Amino acid sequence: YTCRSTCCEVTAAGRPGNGLQQDCSGDWRLWIHLSRLGPVRKTFARVKQSGSHLVCSLVHRHPEWKIINLDNLDYCCSPRSLESVENRTNYIFIRGDVCNPRLVNHIFSSENIDIIFHLAAKTHVEASFESPSSFQEVNVEGTRVLLGAAHQARHQPQRFIYISTDEVYGASLREVFDESSPLRPSNPYAATKAAAEYLVRSYWDQYKFPIIITRSNNIYGPRQYTEKVIPRFLTLLQMDKKCTIQGTLPKSRHFLFVSDAINAFLLLLEKGIVGEIYNVGTSCEIPIIQLARELVRMVKKVPESEVNDWLEFVPDRPRVDLRYPIKCEKLQQLGWRAEVSWTEGIRQTVKWYRDNPDFWSDISEDQPPIRREFENATTTVVPISSES
């Protein structure tokens, strides 16, 4: 925010004359000067605290569409993720909170929003046990605010696409979940995502508001914040610290490369049926200990006999699910297939973190769970042989 005598301004894509202004009275005014853009065929509202890949993809693929990105730049977000689009004429950035009804309502009254991709959420499971109320506020109340504003808008949106998670199903050792499986969330994060899903569904049931819900696997790839398991392991290894593995139970996760996830979301925009739910995932199930060992080999390049020296088992969090297997036939019937193999996806990811070691280096005090983990991790001292 840039303070002025009578207001605070949030710039839109950094361009003078574009922005959102809040008077000291609290009233919001939105002005957007896009004379260079020419005719606008589509207008998008994209809402999230992170996940810049979708924004960049939309901006670059569709220069004739106006992309509005509402983001509060929480700790897990970096403006650097959007540098490739910040000067594009079809991109508008608004820094703000999805839980602010005055702001969200004004955006919908000032812009003819056709499509909403709603990804705004707190997602760190461990933090959800420490501060469940903040997860309820953002994940549930934020969804209610956005739904209400979109439904009441003068210009009715064509699609409201809500990005959820496979964690709403709960864990399973044998059952593979499809979209009709019951929801059994087992942590506060997953519970708030399930609650938000019910809100979204209620707008379809009551008003036939054109919603689509996705439930995806663990999405990974470049620029992901370091609280997630793959960038967490990579960051620890780059600091010459051991990969900290929570608990000793045989946990595994299904991983989905970010470009495949984006392609699924855009396909559902084009071909998805309103009122429906779609699982988005792959058959690529990786045990967490295998993941850690694979990353040790790729990053530290140590002999096989030394791989386990870079692993450390730490106490588990209060409740942990071993695996979340899902079926994706419904999405595949629309023509979607994951195109990036695990080998290629993890190669690209490791390369990006190797080339950008300082991208997430400013781990601040307002991120206690991940900060504690990095501070407490054990530094590995590699012995030097007397023969070398």
UniProtKB/TrEMBL annotation:
<dbReference type="InterPro" id="IPR016040">
    <property type="entry name" value="NAD(P)-bd_dom"/>
</dbReference>
<feature type="domain" description="NAD(P)-binding">
    <location>
        <begin position="49"/>
        <end position="349"/>
    </location>
</feature>
<dbReference type="InterPro" id="IPR036291">
    <property type="entry name" value="NAD(P)-bd_dom_sf"/>
</dbReference>
<keyword id="KW-0456">Lyase</keyword>
<dbReference type="GO" id="GO:0009225">
    <property type="term" value="P:nucleotide-sugar metabolic process"/>
</dbReference>
<dbReference type="Pfam" id="PF16363">
    <property type="entry name" value="GDP_Man_Dehyd"/>
</dbReference>
<dbReference type="InterPro" id="IPR005888">
    <property type="entry name" value="dTDP_Gluc_deHydtase"/>
</dbReference>
<keyword id="KW-0520">NAD</keyword>
<protein>
    <recommendedName>
        <fullName>NAD(P)-binding domain-containing protein</fullName>
    </recommendedName>
</protein>
<dbReference type="GO" id="GO:0008460">
    <property type="term" value="F:dTDP-glucose 4,6-dehydratase activity"/>
</dbReference>
